[in-house]
Amino acid sequence: MKRLLALLATGASVVGLTVLAGPPAQAATGCSAEYTITSQWAGGFQAGVKVTNLGDPVSDWTLGFTMPDTGQKVVQGWNATWSQSGSAVTATGVDWNRTLATGASTDLGFVGSFTGSNPAPTSFSLNGVACTGSVTNPTDPPTDPPVTGTPADVNGQLHVCGVHLCNQYDRPIQLRGMSTHGIQWFGSCYSDASLDALADDWKSDLLRVAMYVQEDGYETDPDGFTRQVNRLVDMAEARGMYALIDFHTLTPGDPNYNLDRAKTFFSSVAARNADKKNVIYEIANEPNGVSWAAVKNYAEQVIPVIRAADPDAVVIVGTRGWSSLGVSDGSNESEVVNNPVNAANIMYAFHFYAASHKDNYRATVSRAASQLPLFVSEFGTVSATGGGAVDRASSIAWLDLLDQLKISYANWTFSDADEGSAAFKPGTCNGSDFSSSAVLTESGALLKSRISTADNFPTS
Ligand code: IDC
Question: Which domains are present in the chain?
Fold first, then answer.
């Protein structure tokens, strides 16, 4: 990963915006642009640009920069309207980020191609003003007060807007959090103490509640598991976290095998939790060995059951090939794009395990993210077995990509399972310490460092 802060020295003469006559009103102009290559593969790359307006508020903006190498091309971008003429690239704000207050930032990105080398551009301009990282004609820039409140308080009832998950202010957000392991096996890991640590120390936005259907799960005691799920929803709500109710189908891979159970379960949890704002429903963890048409058919039968009880909740639909958008079955996102689930306010699940799923999976997500609302409801830092070593480089490339695209995620697992994907060392859940670094595995330490950074959820 390359990181570069564009701080170019320019003379005062570059000020291109109107300067109002007479003191004290002076138009302050300035911007900074931070360009990051988040992943790179043969002939292709993904880059993000964080643009910060250091000047007076703008209600429309265009970012300009020059590709240093003639072979570098923007293929597809997001969060702006992108165009390229020769080596000159422009990105113009879209509806929801067109207005940038003083000090406000917006993250843009694109997938690019290159033929020779792939150097980062070094000079950027915003509405024609060079982004020097400082303010010319400075006034006192007002600073926004920090947002206080829990993730669920600040964001309220969520909904899908375009390809994003949006909050109560209709602004795109990214939720970052953890998944339980199978609650039939690791119930002791989900206590007041562990969930306090998840909310307060990890600053997690969400808890995914993985309720296996088979493997000694729901099918063995529907009422008992429904109660356990509801209890965890309440515990997440009490701590201001979203709760993702995961109907964790895995084997058999055809979700239709569990269609009747899904209808019974979701009609119950949706009715019980309808008034809550912190609940998201995930109707089939990982369809596998089954066509997209069969998964879509399942979704179109289960979603109406949820809607009848809880009309406004976001629903996540699993995808073919262990929720790989079909890639693990040799297909790709086009099968969903061309034949989407007939329902509103839904997102599609994408799952990955960083040591097993790399560039071609990242390229799929980069492409698909501009066409489908995606939610990474499960991923691991290790291999698809849930074990083995943490693949740090691939995990970081994935997390950077998800951050750039504002794709929400839950990491497998917030548990002390004896496997590389678990965040806690074996035995942790028998004790009372869920906060010190001594109880974290390598995967846990990496995820805690990523999840606990400030969310900066938009509030207007
Ligand atoms: C794994 C658990 C492991 C358990 C196994 C079987 O980590 O302890 O024995 O399930 O149930 C998934 C699944 C998730 C898997 C995980 C790792 O959603 O249930 O958990 N994984 O194999 N998809 C890809 C990987």
Answer: 21-130 (2.60.40.290), 151-451 (3.20.20.80)
